[in-house]
């Protein structure tokens, strides 16, 4: 049952993101891979939420994955990481939360509106934090690889 739901959600997230990539004129070369990555990230989010029942952790880990994948794809496709990051965030952005904030504001139900403001703010904060942390992680990994390679070269030169 969960597999059928995941396949459907993957397809919908992929299709929605593909439309986004067309509208914002992303290079044709990366549209499909970015859309598929977005669909995959959405399924990861859904699975994380199903097992943890904590939307904050699910959003944080999903956006960490977006950041790491975006940085990797940026190197592979020789494009800026934002080309991959922004479309992948499309399914995760809390649009419904923003809608309910405005709805309850208009209805003058400020108690419920406040709950939605808090949840939406926490959600967007988790998304932003995940992206920022992933960039830091990628930089640390790149430095470690660079240091490892330079140490290996230096060791080879001293042993010759």
Automatic annotation (TrEMBL):
Keywords: Cell inner membrane, Cell membrane, Membrane, Transmembrane, Transmembrane helix. Residues 9-135 form the Threonine/Serine exporter ThrE domain. It comes from the Bacteria. Belongs to the ThrE exporter (TC 2.A.79) family. The chain crosses the membrane at residues 6-24, 31-51, 57-77, 84-106, 126-145. Pfam families: ThrE_2. InterPro entries: ThrE_2, ThrE_Dicarb/AminoAcid_Exp. One of its GO terms (cellular component) is plasma membrane. Its main location: membrane. It comes from Peptoniphilus harei. It is found in: Cell membrane. It is a multi-pass membrane protein. GO terms for biological process: succinate transport. This is Threonine/Serine exporter ThrE domain-containing protein.
